[in-house]
Amino acid sequence: MTVLAAFAMMPMPRVCAQAAVTPQKVIIDTDIGDDIDDAFALALALKSPELQILQVNADYGDTPLRARLLERFLVASGRGNIPVATGVQTVGKGVFTQARYAEREPSGAVPARDAVTSTLALIRRYPGQITLIAIGPYVNVGTMIDRDPATFAKLKRVIVMGGSINVGYASGGVTAYGKLPGPQPEWNVENDVAGARKLLASGTPIYMMPLDATQLKLDEVKREELFRHDSALTDQLVLLYHQWGQLTPTLYDPMTIAFAIDPGLCPVTPMRIRVDDQGNTRSEAGTPNVNVCLHSDPEKFFDFFMPRLLDE
User: Which domains does the chain have, with CATH numbers?
Assistant: First the structure.
């Protein structure tokens, strides 16, 4: 047998079936510090190698204090390399339950970085590549659109937690026969109707995770498993959870992060959505302007969520 023939009969080295996936470039816009779900969403993003977090923006209300919270959270979690930007400051209607955590971070610790200016600059640097994940009212988003709509339109997509299509807040109780309440104004939309309308008219691909698909309860068993894990990241969640001061978190915002990585966790339907003056998100006839997730499987979501936060 010739050397060439012998070589041909040798088993070929096994080639990896799946090439390394380039992480998605994302910017997260968050009103972290009031409810606790923003912190869990950020934690999920930090534990997801599929995402390259270019920046985290503080949005709505006391944005300088939110930026301090973000800076402390990221540094303490070992991700202080991620830039924090301060968004447009407004009069917020919520209660900043985690203010004490934020105040422990010195006011001068957050580098001066304007969220609107820096986000637009990043979009220009990476046109068509960035996913903006918006999990607060649309103050920063609306300001970006006002300032430079052409650049905003160069986003790859926007994923938002917002809206209520067929289902309202479960905390409002159930109606007869155990059905959830009907649609009602959702917090993020209700607190910036103008910004939500600007986003829907922007022409940018939008993926909406409304109340219908995001009322995911982090029950006592799951909480205990996370909180006794004792990693740098989960320790920060423990501190913020106790300052939040309630019992069972509803993980509305983490679904946006999960969807960015695995869209199968919240399948979407193209719809035309209009925001009325009260902040209701009304479905109407016409050309779709948003892709809406109307249902999710909580078991599948937590099978995705829990191992990531416990992987350390």
Answer: 22-309 (3.90.245.10)
